[in-house]
Design brief:
The complex is a heterodimer. By secondary structure, chain A is an all-alpha fold. Chain A has helices at residues 2-31, 38-63, 71-93, 99-114, 131-159, 172-205, 213-235, 239-263. Chain B is α+β, with helices and mostly antiparallel strands. In chain B, a hairpin with a 2-residue loop joins strand 20 and strand 21 (392-396). Classes of the chains: A mainly alpha, B alpha+beta. Chains A and B meet through helix 6 and helix 7 of A and helix 2, strand 7, strand 10 and helix 8 of B.
């Protein structure tokens, strides 16, 4: 067990440092000081992601289960989800500059993970369910997507104030569309998170919905993104307003993840 | 009159009204998470000296069952229903195979495409293609029925609401505490539930791994069914569900007469409860039971786990309502008071089973499935249209125009390259 923890700690630290380097390189790249760092930054991000994956795998082996059951483990997985979303988007559309705004979010979440206890604790009875993997796994994908959408929205807001030569993405409309598509994926995943949580709660606690603060804030996040999509599709809300919505939505995600655990008493209190 | 009704109906169905309601609902439930729920009115007055009265007046102390919240959700259900009804006719028309949308400024164009290439693309991607023989123009569409995704999602949410309302009206819930051997009767459901055993399993460090209740259901016709339930593994029988919800400890209290050694009373006393011995006017309060006792930072006893490896009882005695002694004793240790000896011989854990009947859950599950289906259709099976005229391809998709256009462009370029290579 100790050897697992040692490897995990080393992998975590390397990941954290490498992500910081990659974020700095991306920021230098988008600031226009030099445009040659893009590939190096992507490579370093990939290396960081590999170490991150190692930390997750070692944690899984050490704990004998997926790392989904407390704040440290979820933050570790959430950070992984953010970087994975970024890498997938880069693979699909080759927009590496987004890294300048997504990697800092990944660092923020990893920084939060570093403040949490890393002790491997056994799963409490309520968590001993196959639904845990599905519920938290989809939450990672959902939160990762919303973080990515937030990063893209920040790019849109910055680009909208710049001349076309100085823009991070040549066409601001592209960042607007990408943000929207990523939110669509995130919202579908969030719906699965809420529904799987409800089905699990029905099995464990007898009620599919109990207005627990974690449940309620997930619903609030869902409502924010649902309003965003309706205004976009029915009222053609695009541009800055949509970008601000994506940012507000992600603030709600962060509050659901961190704020609820710290500030509000919840039956999800094991997630501390 | 009809015009007025129609105007009201359209206002209720409007997106503006929906957004307003969603914002209000979100704000209301945010407040519900910030203000502790279901405390006494006095508590709110004390905790919120300036806003206490307002909290009670607006029912924010029971936010999720307050009239304001119910009205908001009811209006939202009306909005969803009317909006779905109003838009459904047009959507059904657009879902038909012969529908093709008028071009708009947001549609994008690809020039220099051969007819063979676009036909090849459309067949490969399973578009339905119609060709005008006179003009030579082609029109193709895919996932026209995807326009119904939003309506399906709305229906799913409404089904969920129905499930919630039915659940609130008919669901019943009760908690029963049972010691091994105890029975509880469910006359309506025609059976008796008997607890055969209750125990805990432990992790290495002492944390509870699982709470396990072994039960037998004895039906009115005499047949029996034995089951084991634990957290995450509820039991279903004849329309009721039993959940492993809680547990507690009882201590076996024995009161003996010192002079005659006669056992006057023997029975189980729950932790936190009292027993009044009438003859001696003595009240025995089992303050707590510590299966694995240790002394905490504040010098008070605490239990490190629920494993019975260092058991102690905290007992307080009262005579005529006045405290006359407090003790921390091991099982079997006697407490002598006047001519009585009090002993807690051993402990037995009892199980807390939550018994629930909720016929609405299948409705709720159906709602969940419909919502997911609707969202998937809406987001990933959205309608896509292609028109071809004299080498010019126009792509159109309201929900994801840019991505669709680029996907078509990329695929057409691949087809064109392959064709050139073959030539």
């Amino acid at each position: 067990m100790e050897s697992y923890q040692l490897v995990e700690n080393v992998a975590f630290t390397v990941t954290f440092v490498v992500y910081i380097i990659s974020a700095v390189l991306f920021l230098v790249h988008v600031s226009g000081i030099t445009k040659k760092l893009e590939r190096v930054a992507m490579l370093i991000t990939l290396i960081g992601f590999l170490f991150h994956t190692v930390a997750m795998v070692v944690r899984t082996l050490g704990a004998g289960r997926l790392p989904f059951s407390n704040q440290y483990e979820f933050a570790l997985s959430f950070g992984w989800g953010i970087v994975l979303s970024f890498l997938v988007l880069h693979k699909m559309y080759k927009f590496s500059s987004i890294g300048a705004f997504v990697m800092p979010l990944g660092i923020l979440v990893m920084g939060y993970a570093s403040l949490q206890s890393r002790a491997v604790r056994p799963l409490m009875p309520a968590l001993q369910s196959h639904w845990l993997t599905f519920h938290v796994g989809t939450a990672i994908l959902s939160y990762g997507a919303f973080a990515l959408a937030c990063g893209i929205a920040v790019i849109y807001i910055i680009d909208s104030k710049r001349t076309s030569e100085k823009r991070i993405l040549k066409d601001p409309e592209i960042s607007d569309i990408l943000s929207y598509r990523v939110i669509v994926f995130g919202l579908l995943m969030l719906t699965i998170v809420i529904i799987s949580g409800a089905i699990w709660a029905q099995k464990a606690w007898s009620r599919y919905w109990a207005w627990d603060p974690k449940e309620t804030w997930s619903l609030i996040t869902w409502i924010i993104y649902a309003i965003y999509l309706h205004l976009r599709l029915r009222r053609n809300w695009r541009g800055k307003a949509a970008a601000w919505f994506a940012i507000i939505g992600f603030i709600s995600v962060l509050f659901t993840f961190v704020g609820v655990n710290i500030l509000l008493p919840s039956i999800h209190s094991y997630a501390t | 009159m009809n015009r007025t009704v129609s105007k009201i109906f359209h206002s209720i169905a409007s997106l503006r009204f929906a957004v307003l309601l969603l914002v209000l609902i979100a704000c209301y439930i945010v407040i519900g998470t910030l203000i502790p729920q279901h405390s006494s009115p006095e508590w709110y007055q004390e905790a919120y000296p300036t806003a206490g009265s307002l909290i009670i007046m607006l029912s924010l102390d029971s936010a999720y069952s307050s009239p304001i919240f119910i009205v908001l959700v009811g209006l939202f259900a009306m909005n969803l229903t009317s909006c779905t009804i109003l838009s459904l006719k047009g959507q059904v028309r657009q879902a038909k195979d012969n529908y093709f949308p008028p071009f708009t400024a947001s549609d994008q164009i690809i020039d220099g495409v051969t007819e063979d290439a676009i036909i090849h693309y459309c067949k490969k991607k399973r578009f339905t293609v119609s060709k005008d023989k006179e003009t030579g123009t082609c029109k193709a569409g895919k996932f026209r029925w995807g326009i119904l995704g939003a309506a399906i999602t709305h229906v799913g949410i409404l089904v969920l609401f129905v499930g919630g309302v039915v659940g609130n009206m008919v669901a019943t819930e009760d908690v029963v505490s049972l010691l091994p051997g105890n029975e509880v009767s469910f006359a309506e459901q025609g059976f008796v539930l008997r607890l055969d055993d209750f125990y805990m399993t432990f992790e290495e460090g002492g944390a509870v791994k699982q709470y396990i209740s072994e039960v037998t259901m004895i039906n009115d016709d005499g047949t029996e069914r034995t089951e084991t339930l634990w957290v995450n593994n509820p039991l279903s029988h004849n329309g009721i569900k039993a959940y492993q919800a809680s547990f507690g400890w009882t201590g076996n209290l024995r009161i003996t007469d010192n002079t005659t050694d006669e056992v006057l009373v023997e029975g189980l006393l729950r932790s936190g409860r009292t027993y009044f011995h009438q003859n001696s006017h003595l009240t025995i309060y089992l303050y707590d039971y510590y299966p694995e006792m240790a002394i905490g930072h504040d010098q008070n006893p605490v239990s490190l786990s629920n494993r019975e490896i260092n058991p102690y009882y905290a007992v307080i005695l009262y005579e005529f309502g006045n405290p006359v002694g407090s003790y921390i004793i091991e099982p079997g240790d006697p407490i002598t008071y006047n001519n009585l000896t009090l002993t807690f011989t051993h402990s037995i854990a009892y199980t807390g089973l939550l018994i629930r009947t909720d016929p609405s859950y299948p409705i709720v599950l159906t709602g969940f499935i419909i919502i997911l289906l609707g969202m998937f259709v809406s987001f990933y099976c959205y309608p896509r249209f292609i028109s071809y005229d004299s080498g010019r391809v126009t792509t159109s998709s309201r929900k994801n125009g840019w991505v669709f256009h680029n996907a078509v462009k990329l695929e057409l370029s691949k087809i064109s390259k392959t064709a050139k290579r073959e030539e």
